[in-house]
Amino acid sequence: MNADGAKGVLTIRAMRATDGAAVFEIYRQGIATGHATFEKDIPADWRAWFASRLPHGRLIAERDGRIVGWSALSPVSARAVYAGVAEVSVYVADAAHGLGVGRALLGALVEASEAASIWTLQASIFPENQASVALHQRFGFRHMGTRERIAWMSHGPMADQWRDTVILERRSAITGTGRPSG
Questions:
Q1: Helix or strand or coil: residue 179?
Q2: Cα 157 to Cα 21: distance, rounded to the nearest angstrom
Q3: Is 10 a member of any domain?
Q4: In a domain? residue 48
Q5: Does the residue 31 lie in any domain?
Q6: Residue 13 in contact with residue 65, Cβ under 8 Å?
Q7: Which of 56, 99, 102, 165 has the highest Cβ tally under 10 A?
């Protein structure tokens, strides 16, 4: 999956176990904004983090051999009835914002999820992160509601306040349209 970008060719590929340092650096940049996650620090254990994401949703965006973004799918539940439901994460390096990286990653992530029979994608986004909300809506995510004062932010530029999250959902038109087998 390739897309021409303003600064070279953007390539989307599967995330490898060796991508940890670059993935966590981009994650750290997202944490620092105060608008990407409630997490305070990057995880201590790359292997555990990598293993906790669905294999078909772990994607990397590279431009000119440099990792400029990543995406991942996380299961929403261990219960079998939710096997086709996953939570979306998309992170773009600070230097690559506005260059189509998020669009390429989310498009590839939607394709990968449908190929793996994921019928529902969910995203929980801070309402202040308007670019992320708009990106998800571009790919068919619908606004399901707002979780008001869902958690207290204890760090970063949005510290010492309650935060809301916007809940977005995308239902596949390709998979999950009939009765599941089994």
A1: coil
A2: 24
A3: yes
A4: yes
A5: yes
A6: no
A7: 102
HSE, side-chain direction, 13 A CA sphere, residue 152: 2
Distance CA 54, CA 56 (A): 6
Question: What single-letter amino acid sits at 72?
Answer: A
Total domain count for the chain? 1
Q: What is the per-residue DSSP string for 43-62?
A: -S-HHHHHHTS-GGG-EEEE
Strand order in the sheet with 8-14: 2-5, 8-14, 59-63, 66-75, 85-92, 120-125, 161-171, 142-153
How far apart, in whole angstroms, are the C-alpha atoms of residue 153 and residue 127?
14
| pLDDT tens-digit map of 126-182 | 999 999 999 999 999 999 999 999 887 787 777 778 889 999 999 998 887 766 655
Render pLDDT for 100-121 as a digit per residue (tens, 0 to 9): 999 999 999 999 999 999 999 9
pTM of the model: 0.89
3-state per-residue secondary structure call for 111-169: HHHHHCCCCEEEEEECCCCHHHHHHHHHCCCEEEEEEEEEEEECCHHHCCEEEEEEEEE
CATH of the domain at 84: 3.40.630.30
Locate 66 and state its tokens: 């440099």
Tell whether 110 is covered by a domain: yes
**Could you tell me the residue range of the domain that residue 39 belongs to?**
2-122
Query: Residue 112's closest CA among 177, 69, 57, 75?
Result: 57
